[in-house]
Amino acid sequence: MKSGDPTSLDISQSDLHAMAYTDPLTGLGNPYRLRDKVRQLSTERAEDPAPFTVCIANLDGFKPINDLFGPEAGDEILCQVAHRLKACIPDGATVTRHGGDEFAFLLPLVFERKAAEKVGQMLKEVLSAPFDLGDRNVRLSASFGFAIYPFAGEDFSDILKSAETALYRSKRRGRGQITVYSQEIAQEMKRATQLEQALRNAIIANEVDVHFQPIVNLKDDTVVGFEALARWCDADLGYVSPATFVPLAEERGFIDALSDTLLRKAAEAAMNWPKELFLSFNLSSAQLMDPKTAFNTLAILNRVGLDPRRLEMEITETAMMTDAETAQKIVSELRGAGVRISLDDFGTGQSSLGRLRDFSFDKVKIDRAFVSRLTCDRASEHIVKAIVAMCEGLELEVVAEGIEDFSEALKLKALGCGMGQGYFYGKPADAVATLNLLSDRYRHIDAGPISA
């Protein structure tokens, strides 16, 4: 056929149109196809706006797998995901690749929340089966955000934004979650964004504070160190719990800025303490995935002048397992500089004994869930006794968390636990109050104002 033939031109234009609306990797439609399908359906239903649903799905943990096995393996997984989704979507539905490891769906016959959740559960199960990479199998989960027209928006951009908001809430709640957009969820996410902006401003203005809880030697009740704990009281929002703002900083990607500020303040306060006292500081899961964490930590200590041997970093088993290889490297770099590593919340993870074998720790902290039941539950008593004996054999120090009364302290001493902390020994206090506490015990300490 000659190039000047009009039929040839029609075929070429058709091919170009198909390419413009197709994802080249998976063969699914792309965001442009989703947009046109949604606009067409909303136009058809404009006079009698019967509902329909848009969904966005995100693969949980895809990036670490892509980094570990390489982009070719990642592409293969995406193609297998596309194949499964295309095979299982309801009649009349459309699935597209939304970009990266996200896929989008148009579900014309899903009219309400329960039906959307049912579809989400079905898709979740389809994607939970292992993916074949030849010499290995990998498993993934997926999170879903649904938005129902016209309640979640009447034009494409609004309904898509609502689906993305629902997906973001699913990701905040953990892996494999399903969320259908509602006004309540929108308000919740709006509050989170307002909180985020306030926290970012507080970090810049140096308004996030550090309080210190004493850690004592249970043999003689002497203070041996302090755990640094984040505190924030906003002029408009009032007191905000660290259980709220620390995870928010992780989710929104500025935990490093928050942690650096807190570590600097904590290290500056510790410079005023007797040199035999240590500072305990918590590392987040996000920091244990960042190869620069050890360098940043040691740089702050160097600027402040705090001996790394006076610092203990607390990490949880859950945080370690997000990216175990990077976490191991960070731990090794910190320990090489003299920083001690403590395993926090011991006994609450799924394979704590394995972590003790695979990682190098200096200390184990017994979770307060066991300590709080120590005097009334024989099982908890035996667990604590076993942990203490095991750590003694492994030459690890032990700290019991959440000691609230004399009877718990007495029982822990009888079981041979070396150290403890909790309200019985002291509530978290700011830097000045902490220095006043120490001045009662060490006469050479000046309890005047300290740098913060």
Question: What does this protein look like?
Answer:
- With 452 residues, the chain is an alpha/beta fold.
- The chain folds into 2 domains: 6-181, 2-Layer Sandwich (Alpha-Beta Plaits); 192-439, TIM Barrel, CATH 3.20.20.450.
- It has helices at residues 6-20, 31-44, 62-69, 71-88, 113-128, 156-173, 183-204, 242-251, 255-270, 293-304, 317-322, 324-336, 352-358, 368-371, 378-393, 406-414, 431-439; strands at residues 52-60, 94-99, 102-107, 131-132, 137-138, 141-149, 178-180, 209-217, 222-234, 238-240, 278-282, 311-316, 340-346, 363-366, 397-400, 419-420.
- β13, α13 (352-358) and β14 form a beta-alpha-beta unit.
- α9 (255-270) runs parallel beside α10.
- 37% of the residues are buried.
- The model is unreliable at 447-452 (pLDDT under 50).
